[in-house]
Specification:
16 helices, mainly alpha, two-stranded antiparallel ribbon, disordered N terminus, single chain, 6 strands
Length: about 500
């Protein structure tokens, strides 16, 4: 690297961090704005528009929502690999961002065909965008840089700001002017994120970071087409395939695909464990267990975009407070408010040598998830004559589950890298990301069980109250039982972890 480039990089600082961090912060903030803004509307839009003519509209919505969520997270594993080997982070982020922006704008078109094509565009685009922008943040810091953790804290704050503001604005637009205005605003948010990223490149705030790993590989021709051009072409060709899979909700092909993937991953992990020494095998067992428990937690947590949104729409007294889609902002609001206090709590407990090991935090996180659903399950006792429950129950539920999220999510990822053998860390990171994809299969199963059969767009009140509260009671029991099992297993898991905290 030339002296002028090094000097330029050294000068590109802001608030003690690489200036590029703040461009990535705003790019991710707007990308999350688009993602969560769209997600806040998605279930309600499918129930009230796409499937409004069929009695099984809740079940159809549950299958499509779960399939979409699974594919969104699974695509990151493929997109990350392509970026690492061929495109580099910059090209991947641009490709993904453009596909996602187009997807959000296509959602603004009133057509069933356009709807499924839009979801497919977002799935493919997210695969290229999401894993690379997070990795890009890490690439801005040299190995051992003590500022890296605080840099990620700033970056993740952007994620939650986007997740908080988007449902409020997109939900308001959808309620006041129509669904497609809300989806259109999500598309504008994605474009804003890309513009921020582009301006950072033009100002050279990223230095030489994020370029293709090998220009030779990047330019290499396959079937006469350079790979830098071929990959976007293949990505676009996959869009109608994914759209078809999503639209075939009655066959539910995607659920079958994920069952096969799950079996294959487990079989490969058993094979790996068989060939490891005893110490490495013990640590990998814990890595697999915490990935499984995280999958369970996300499976309950991600109901916020489906069943809980429908419950808010049909059975929560929201008049004068917010719309059902806007309730999706509550989780991010509490994450923003609680992240620093809980971080300080872990610091205080560490100083006093009382900071619980990872398995205990996971057990407590699942117990808190169970407690949050228990709050919703008892809300029926306070329902009015129309079957509407006070908003306070929903508020308390999100407060509790957000604490559970902060107990589990921030520590899980780092523990995967610590517990996995060095030669399969990348594979285990892929498995960790896939856990969110499998969590949406849990969402689909639960949402289908709690589906209301009706073609009445105004269904709700006393007709639906017991369906939801009884379901929330069962979820609470499952989550609390899982948390109790994790706490009982924690001493053994702690032993298996060895020197990993």
């Amino acid at each position: 690297m030339s002296e002028s480039v090094i000097k330029n990089q050294e000068e590109q600082q802001m608030f003690g961090h690489p200036k590029g961090l703040f461009y990535l912060f705003f790019a991710e903030l707007w990308e999350r704005f688009s993602f969560y803004g769209m997600r806040a509307l998605l279930t309600l839009y499918m129930v009230n528009e796409i499937f409004k003519a069929i009695a099984e509209r809740d079940a159809a919505t549950a299958v499509v929502y779960a399939s979409y969520g699974s594919l969104v997270y699974a695509s990151t594993v493929i997109g990350g690999q392509i970026s690492d080997k061929i495109l580099g982070m910059r090209s991947s982020i641009f490709l993904g961002g453009i596909l996602m922006a187009v997807g959000h704008f296509v959602l603004a078109v009133e057509s069933d065909l356009a709807f499924f094509l839009a979801l497919a565009l977002i799935v493919v685009g997210n695969g290229f965008f999401k894993p690379n922008i997070s990795t890009f943040v890490g690439a801005l810091y040299k190995e051992g840089d003590v500022r890296k953790d605080s840099g990620f804290t700033i970056f993740y704050m952007g994620i939650n700001i986007g997740g908080f503001v988007a449902p409020l604005l997109c939900g308001w637009l959808a309620a006041e002017y129509g669904w497609h205005y809300g989806f259109g605003l999500a598309g504008i948010g994605m474009m804003a994120g890309l513009i921020f990223f582009w301006s950072g490149i033009k100002k050279n705030v990223f230095g030489d970071k994020g370029l293709p790993p090998s220009k030779e590989v990047y330019e290499k021709k396959v079937i006469g087409i350079p790979q830098k051009t071929l990959i976007p072409i293949i990505a676009v060709l996959f869009v109608p395939v994914i759209a078809y899979l999503l639209s075939s909700w009655q066959a539910n092909y995607i659920s079958g695909i994920f069952k096969f993937i799950g079996f294959a991953v487990l079989a490969y992990l058993v094979y790996i464990m068989y060939n490891l020494d005893v110490v490495a095998r013990k640590k990998l067992i814990v890595a697999v267990l915490i990935t499984f428990f995280m999958t369970l937690f996300w499976g309950f947590h991600e109901l916020s975009g489906s069943v809980i949104t429908l419950f808010a729409s049909r059975n929560v007294a929201l008049e004068g407070i917010m719309t059902a889609s806007q309730t999706n902002a509550l989780n991010s609001m509490f994450i923003i408010l609680l992240a620093i206090p809980i971080s300080l709590l872990w610091g205080y407990l560490s100083k006093n040598k009382l900071n619980p090991r990872t398995p205990y935090k996971f057990g407590l996180g699942l117990l808190l998830a169970g407690a949050s659903f228990y709050i919703l399950s008892i809300s029926g006792a306070s329902a009015d004559e129309n079957g509407m429950v006070p908003f306070a129950y929903l508020l308390v539920m999100y407060f509790i589950i957000s604490i559970g999220e902060l107990f589990m999510s921030p520590v899980g990822l780092s523990k995967i890298t610590d517990l996995s053998p060095k030669n399969i860390v990348a594979f285990m990171m892929g498995v960790w990301f896939l856990s969110s994809a499998f969590a949406f299969q849990i969402v689909g199963f639960i949402s289908t069980q709690l589906a209301v059969e009706s073609t009445d767009t105004n269904v709700g009140g006393l007709e639906t109250l017991s369906i939801y509260t009884d379901g929330f009671h069962l979820i609470s029991l499952y989550s609390i039982s899982a948390g109790a099992i994790v706490l009982l297993l924690s001493p053994l898991m702690k032993k298996l972890m060895g020197n990993v905290h």
